[in-house]
Amino acid sequence: MDLTPSDEQRLLRESADRFINETYTSKLREQNAKEPLGFSQAIWKQFAELGWLALPIAEEHGGIGGGAIEVGILMEAFGRGLVSEPYLSTVVLGAGLVAAHGRDDQKAALLPQVAEGTLRLAFAHAERAARANLSRVDTTARKDGDNYVLDGAKVAVLDGAAADQLIVSARLANNGSGSLRLFMVPRDAPGLALADYPRLGGGRACNLTLQGVRVPADALLGDDGDAYPAIEAVVDRALAAMSAEAVGMMQTLTDKTLDYTKVRKQFGKPLAANQVIRHRLTDMSVQVDEARSMALRAALKADADAAERGRAASGAKAKIGKGARFVAEQSVQLHGGMGVTEELDVGAYFKRLLAFETLFGGSTHHYRRHAALSGRPV
């Protein structure tokens, strides 16, 4: 398999790295943390102008037609800059669900708006009792004439307060199969209560309560069929994108730690002159290289059959979750007391990597999923 990047992929990497280095400074991150939505709408507009919001969207719907590899290149750069804009929630998850499960008229209406930056989406699926089990959904949708009535609660909805439309998963209450459906729900719909909060390491999320939320029949995303296969496929794509983002953070922490140990002196010598310190830096670099390989494999398998795609996505999430924690902890320790102060941004990367470990299931969950998909006992 030839893994040499194409000219378009190299240009994307160069433009993303240049943008992060020149624009996405620590000062900008501090300003974003004070924004009500947790990100800069001006930066979001620049994402649209650069074509990044259109990257994975099909050309027929105003997009560029890129794949998981291109999204991974962009997400790795976002990881290096600790970007807090709702790219994962809107473009990877939201637009991904519309593209995978929506009707043709819904794709034509919604996807161009996402590409232009005029529509933000959020995926409301996780529930408290479900933990990381994607198939566990207790929120119900009841058919009532020409409407559906939604009741239930969702947790950890990424960038839900910033979304114009929420894609809410629910189980049909008056249907024999009780299969899953997806509904487009306006953020200000009557009966929808939203509790917004900051995420660890930047960005925001929210919990939702739905009490008698009434939506028209055409709010159903896609045809009247089970949405679970599309949900699983899009979440696997999100895991690949998140894995690439974690690689960017791990690489940045490793680089910062190497630079710091070269200038920080102890007993008259730089820390990097100590053989034990060099071994720890080498271990960090090994974890980064392994993580990059796993993230790339997850992206390459994004369009494979369900079992192969799931193994690659869960394998990446499990391995990188462990490696990310190791790199983050080593970086903080080797920076000493400075590593836990706000004077350096090491702590911010540390927090974001801890959040990565828990989002969409931790390493233990994904080791078990990988084993189950491989036919091994769990």
Automatic annotation (TrEMBL):
Keywords: FAD, Flavoprotein, Oxidoreductase. It holds the Pfam family Acyl-CoA_dh_1. This is Acyl-CoA dehydrogenase-like. One of its GO terms (molecular function) is flavin adenine dinucleotide binding. The keyword Flavoprotein applies. Its cofactor is FAD. Residues 122-202 form the Acyl-CoA oxidase/dehydrogenase middle domain. Residues 6-117 form the Acyl-CoA dehydrogenase/oxidase N-terminal domain. Belongs to the acyl-CoA dehydrogenase family. Residues 240-363 form the Acyl-CoA dehydrogenase/oxidase C-terminal domain.
